[in-house]
Amino acid sequence: MASSYGTDADKRSLRDAYRRMREDVPQASRRGADAAICRILAGFPPSAEAPLVLSYVSCGSEVDTRALIEGLLARGRRVGVPRCDVSRHQLGFCEILGLDELARGAHGLLEPAADAPALSVSELGGSACLVPGLVFDAQGQRVGYGGGYYDRFLAFYPGEKIGLARLAQISSNPLPHDAHDVAVDFIATESGVWSCR
């Protein structure tokens, strides 16, 4: 069921509400929805045909990407995952060959090693980026975790931006957003993918 949070709700309130809501969903329901999202992405041309897929490494109650990453790698696909540069407040992506290459980094997230080379902007052409978020709206606006890392990266990212969300993370009303917020092009849920363009 879509949310009724409106534009008058500030981002902090939205973050708190959607984090609680997401964590309240039973694990079995989350697993079923996430498996459906994975299947849908496998048949969605922007992600299924991209020469390189950039994906966050899920943690907690986020839409699970670990099985997706492992499946892509098993099929010989190229995968990049993010590494946070806390001092510069920026996000870079590094290509990996397996999840076993990752270790706890900034904010306790699994990341590539500090000496792993980051993918250049030219290498990102034609790729697809799977974007996390606590809540999305029909225009592709999202409320994330408040660090701004993804918005800074997506501001220059040349490929397709695909938000991953369970249906309960879709707001029926427009979300508050600022000039620096970058909308996704598509949102993939357990019921399908829709365009936000």
Secondary structure elements and pairings:
Layout: H1 11-24, H2 27-42, H3 45-48, E1 52-55, H4 66-74, E2 78-85, E3 90-96, E4 103-104, E5 110-111, E6 128-131, E7 135-136, E8 142-143, H5 149-154, E9 160-164, E10 186-189, E11 192-195
Parallel strand pairs: 1-2, 1-6, 6-9, 9-10
Antiparallel strand pairs: 2-3, 4-5, 7-8, 10-11
How would you describe what is shown here?
With 197 residues, this protein is an alpha/beta fold. The chain has a single domain (11-195), classed as NagB/RpiA/CoA transferase-like (Rossmann fold, 3-Layer(aba) Sandwich). The protein has 5 helices and 11 strands, in the order αααβαβββββββαβββ. It has helices at 11-24, 27-42, 45-48, 66-74, 149-154; strands at residues 52-55, 78-85, 90-96, 103-104, 110-111, 128-131, 135-136, 142-143, 160-164, 186-189, 192-195. It has a 7-stranded mixed beta sheet. Strands 4-5 form a two-stranded antiparallel ribbon. It has a two-stranded antiparallel ribbon with strand order 7-8. The longest helix is centred in the first third of the chain and has 16 residues, at 27-42. The chain is globular. The two termini are 23 Å apart. Mean pLDDT is 92; it is low at 1-8. GO terms for molecular function: 5-formyltetrahydrofolate cyclo-ligase activity; ATP binding; metal ion binding. It holds the Pfam family 5-FTHF_cyc-lig.
